[in-house]
């Protein structure tokens, strides 16, 4: 049974390193550290392995993120370019990885290589961690004898993808958070605030204004059927997640997002960045054009972009230039098509695509930076309007009472 061991060891320069590693016994940890060229100072069983009480949520706490893969690729590229063998580099990375699930994947990759498998073949056995882009670039680096250069190029690509994805998520998080806040406030008012006004209005013995009657009816539904309301919220959330993950759901939402003001432009530019950066990396690494287009379609991230790239692949098979088919799809701005056309004429399509990706990355960054300042007043107005309309509906009967008194 695997146990977690905390270790301290000295490298050849005399620096003390510490970390954690999973192994069957203390002796195996010592042997592994010596194999890596370290001198063990202490190896002790981690307290977390003596009493494992941590809560693991499947799909959340055990998830291997793109950032994990990007960090691994950068470290792996640095070690390979420094002259370390594949097995020694993987040994070090297994120990250094803080994600236990990623440790297991890397350990399995190392075992497959020890059994005579190539690095690309070993990585391809874990498609959920290492996608087709990763495997294809590694395979091209192996065949061309430039694995270190390809890994460095791949690490740059992955790091830029992680960074641009992080910025996109930050742009989307704010409006979603405000929407959730509005729903919580409305629900709390329906359950706790409005019923107290209902008792007051009952003593007036008069007909309430229409907005107030509607508000009271909705509040009655929330209070009387609270468990069902909670189930509705949970069901709607789960249903949306399942719909988003389904093929048909992704198609509908991807097309819908592109039509939303502001966010549509942001999603469009992000799709162009992913297309340009992925295709440029594959072409520069020596991957054939048809394979590059097929992999780029898988990594496009937007249904309309996938359809466009798939159509371009068909055109290239028939001998057409990239730019000619790209011009038929509105998702590619004219500037992108023209730059690819120039790249085909000069033999530098990968360079042109890199420039396109860099340009649109800066566009996305500028939009994200201005988005928060633009959305803040809009969302405040929306939140104020919703809450304010409820307050006005509650006080309309009060105004009628004042009129009668006067």
TrEMBL record:
Listed InterPro entries: GspF/PilC, T2SS_GspF/T4SS_PilC_CS, T2SS_GspF_dom, T2SS_GspF_sf
PROSITE patterns, sorted: T2SP_F
Organismal lineage: Bacteria, Bacillati, Actinomycetota, Acidimicrobiia, Acidimicrobiales
One GO term describing the cellular component: plasma membrane
Top-level lineage group: Bacteria
Single GO BP term: protein secretion
Residue ranges constituting the Type II secretion system protein GspF domain according to the UniProt record: 72-195, 275-397
Protein family: Belongs to the GSP F family.
Localization, UniProt: Cell inner membrane; Cell membrane
Keywords: Cell inner membrane, Cell membrane, Membrane, Transmembrane, Transmembrane helix, Transport
Chief place of localization: membrane
Recorded topology in the membrane: Multi-pass membrane protein
Transmembrane segments: 174-194, 214-241, 377-396
The name this protein goes by in its record: Type IV pilus assembly protein PilC
């Amino acid at each position: 049974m695997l146990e977690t061991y905390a270790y301290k060891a000295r490298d050849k320069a005399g620096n003390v390193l510490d970390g954690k590693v999973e192994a069957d016994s203390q002796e195996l940890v010592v042997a592994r550290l010596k194999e890596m060229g370290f001198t063990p100072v202490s190896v002790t069983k981690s307290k977390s392995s003596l009493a494992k009480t941590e809560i693991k949520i499947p799909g959340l706490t055990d998830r291997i993120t793109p950032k994990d893969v990007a960090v691994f690729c950068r470290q792996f590229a640095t070690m390979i370019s420094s002259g370390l063998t594949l097995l020694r580099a993987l040994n070090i990375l297994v120990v250094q990885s803080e994600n236990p699930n990623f440790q297991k994947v890397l350990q399995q990759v190392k075992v497959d290589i020890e059994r005579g498998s190539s690095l690309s073949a070993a990585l391809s056995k874990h498609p959920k961690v290492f996608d087709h882009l990763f495997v294809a670039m590694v395979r091209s680096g192996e065949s061309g004898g430039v694995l270190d250069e390809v890994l460095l190029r791949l690490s740059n690509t992955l790091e830029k993808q992680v960074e641009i994805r992080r910025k996109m998520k930050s742009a989307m998080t704010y409006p979603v958070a405000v929407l959730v806040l509005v729903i919580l406030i409305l629900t709390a008012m329906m359950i706790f605030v409005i019923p107290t006004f209902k008792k007051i209005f009952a003593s007036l013995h008069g007909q309430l204004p229409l907005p107030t009657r509607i508000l009271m009816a909705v509040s009655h539904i929330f209070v009387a059927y609270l468990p069902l309301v909670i189930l509705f919220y949970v069901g709607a959330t789960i249903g949306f997640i399942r719909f988003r993950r389904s093929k048909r759901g992704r198609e509908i939402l991807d097309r819908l997002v592109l039509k939303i003001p502001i966010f549509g432009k942001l999603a469009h530019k992000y799709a162009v960045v992913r297309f340009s950066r992925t295709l440029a990396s594959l072409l520069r690494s020596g991957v054939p054009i048809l394979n590059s287009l097929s992999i780029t379609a898988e990594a496009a991230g937007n249904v309309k972009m996938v359809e466009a790239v798939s159509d371009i692949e068909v055109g290239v098979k028939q001998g057409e230039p990239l730019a000619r088919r790209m011009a038929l799809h509105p998702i590619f701005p004219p500037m992108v098509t023209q730059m690819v056309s120039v790249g085909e004429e000069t033999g530098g399509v990968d360079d042109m695509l890199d420039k396109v990706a860099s340009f649109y990355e800066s566009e996305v960054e500028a939009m994200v930076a201005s988005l928060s300042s633009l959305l803040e007043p809009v969302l405040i107005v929306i939140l104020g309007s919703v809450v304010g309309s409820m307050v006005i509906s509650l006080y309309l009967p009060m105004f009628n009472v004042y009129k009668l008194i006067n």
